[in-house]
Design a protein that fits this description.
Elements lengths: L2 H29 L13 H18 L13 H14 L3 H18 L1
């Protein structure tokens, strides 16, 4: 087995083992209403950037100390993506599409 396959298998095991704790963390963030966007126009790059900041802040709060079982590796980035996914899952389709387009537009403008 190649070193890449071994590393990929190890990463999959770590994620599978840590996912239950992470699911609880994401649920806690959602149950507290940690990320609100109703006051934002997420269809603009500015509104999308503000929502991204709120998601990042919620991830810092909710994901603090979340570690893969048996490892000191932080799961904050994965946790942040899970929170973003849970937020966008609560959006209706047109809002979700507008947010995705505004994020892409904001990234293009930042270059």
């Amino acid at each position: 087995m190649s070193a890449f396959r071994i590393a990929a298998a190890a990463a999959a095991v770590v994620m599978a083992v840590s996912t239950p704790a992470l699911a609880v963390t994401v649920q806690q963030a959602e149950s507290t209403g940690a990320v609100q966007w109703s006051d934002l126009d997420v269809g603009t790059p500015e509104g999308a950037a503000e929502l991204d900041q709120r998601i990042n802040a919620a991830a810092r709060r909710a994901c603090r100390g979340v570690r893969a079982t048996g490892s000191n590796m932080s799961q904050t980035a994965f946790c942040r993506s899970q929170i973003r996914d849970s937020v966008t899952a609560r959006m209706d389709e047109p809002t979700r599409e507008a947010y995705a387009q505004a994020r892409a537009q904001g990234r293009r403008g930042a270059r």
